[in-house]
Write a structure and sequence with these properties.
Elements (H helix, E strand, L loop, with lengths): L7 E3 L3 E4 L2 E6 L5 E2 L9 E2 L1 E4 L4 E2 L13 E2 L5 E3 L10 E2 L9 E3 L9 E4 L16 E4 L11 E3 L1 H10 L5 E4 L6
Parallel strand pairs: 1-15, 4-5, 7-8, 13-14
Antiparallel strand pairs: 1-2, 2-3, 3-14, 6-15, 7-12, 9-10, 9-11, 12-13
Amino acid sequence: MIAGNGDIVVTRRQAHFLGRRFPCAIGRAGFCAHKREGDGTTPIGIFRILGALFRPDRFNGGILPGASPIGFRDIWSDDPSDTAYNQLLPGAHPYPKGHERLSRPDPLYDLILPIDYNWPDPVPGKGSAIFLHRWRSPHHPTEGCVAFAFTDLIWIAARVTSRTRLIVGTGAVR
């Protein structure tokens, strides 16, 4: 597989995008070709970035074309028994099924870029809420997402286009 310069190529400790290298963090259990909900792995594959969501009370997402604000009650369903599994549910908190609140008390989701892993027709239990987001600290593992330093994430988000692919753990050649 040959990656183009406009692709984000993620390896275990860094990502390459538009000629630059960025330190990153992946799932605590590494990469996996057969991700399952809650396994702590980052899915291997080639994905599209679906857009950008931001916390307007913490970050001026208006600097990112097309970015949408995260509402205080917005959630992402992560319950395999939910008919809305792996979907954004605006204004749904409180919610009776398992979910992730997007307006977290920590800054991890101040800016998120959801990807099309197990979307738009999710397979229950195959994994949900896979995003590019801010890391907790350098290389601190995620639950399955790809995380970056906040300034790097902003730089990346500002340059993502509809043609940008996220290539994760496939051994892509540049």
